[in-house]
Specification:
The chain is mainly α. It has one domain. 71% of the residues lie in helices and 0% in strands. The longest helix has 25 residues.
């Protein structure tokens, strides 16, 4: 039973990392950066990436 719980925990852990990276990519944020953030703090990284606004790439940079 203990091994099964470890396997489920690892699957959930990896799922949270990949979901965080996918949301970051959809918001034009760095998926690698948020993926590394999620490796250490997966739930906090997911909450942060859900809260932040997307990067608008259509507007020219302001001087």
């Amino acid at each position: 039973m203990g091994v099964l719980l470890w396997i489920i925990g690892v699957i959930v852990y990896l799922f949270l990392i990949f979901i965080t990276m996918g949301i970051a990519r959809s918001k034009n944020r760095s998926p690698l950066g948020f993926g590394l953030f999620a490796v250490f703090l997966p739930l906090i990284a997911l909450i942060v990436v859900l809260i932040i606004s997307p990067v608008n790439t259509n507007t020219p940079p302001q001087l």
